[in-house]
Amino acid sequence: MAFLTSVGELKSALQRVMPAIEKWSAFPSLTCARLEKGTVTATNRDLRIAADFNGEGALDPVLVPAKALFQTLDNRRPDMPVEIARDGDAVSVKIDGAVSFLMAGDISDWPDFAPAAGPGVPLSKTFHKGLIHCAPFISDEHTRYYLHGVYLDGDTLVATDGHALGHHPAGGDLGIKAILHKDMILAALSLPAARSLVFDGSRKVATLRGPDFEITAKVIDGYFPDWRLVVPDPADARFFAEFDGAELTRALRRIQPFADDPHRYVCLAIGGGGAGLSTIYAGGAFSAHPLSPVAHTPLQSDDDDQQMFYCAVNGVYLARVLGRLRGAERVRLSFFKADGEGPFLASAAPAGDSGLVQMPLRGQSRFRNSAVACLDAVAGTAG
Asked: Given 18, 109, 198, 316, which is the most exposed site by the fewest CB atoms within 10 A?
């Protein structure tokens, strides 16, 4: 009893299930892939991925060491035929006349758990785009485990690490409220867009189905914070500024605020004579880069010589936010307090349904001198 396929088909399917295979485990079955007729499956007991591949013949379920099987297929032409068969306590893999024998695992040790049952709700490509948009903001903090995924809130996808928050339409009201685990999200982003989502509330299990794959994972059993309380309405902005998206990203890269310290701040300053981004490096060195706002709220101040708006933020988080807006012709930053305190909203201009919220640094008044120095520096550059 043997199953015939090609190196390319089997290797592609094996690569798809790799996120669910343990590199090392006290349970040998968790380092194995389960092969049966036209399907390879892997699980680490929290995540299960199954991928289909083309072939013909028959093969009873068998466990094969995933790493050894991948090495057997590596450096072979994709069109080479592969014959897989059970041979006693081993699995034989025959490629171009050469036969490799891989020790078969005990199929009774396979800790598989069933996918969520049912037809599921159909997904559009907007859902996949939302996962891409929100994934960088998934938290890895151990204490707040409920932030270790993307929250599906009916018609919206949300993720936050407590410093920045991303939200994106889910492509319609899916009628599901669940926190999808980050392992499921990362696996889904390595595959084509899923076509349906099945949620089993009683088992706390969700399954994403694609054209030739299934991803099943336990959802996070917890309560996601009420994200709508911290996402401001753009119409309530006290101050906004729009920039050329490429210019703003380039300015942030050039001052390199986090080259020597991941907590180094950057200060955005806008005045009557110009605008810029600045930072102070370890050792006291000051760097500023000019910006040319496309539009901004008129500046108001009792002191005509000090008309300006400024806001200091963590440079690492700002880079992450701008990374999600890469490709936007214009980026709009909306602030909701005149002193720069409180969360601000970053979005593509004109604004869409998705957005990114970031918290500025506390105590904005202590960065006033940096803002003044930044405007003086960019004014001198312009002069």
From this structure: 109
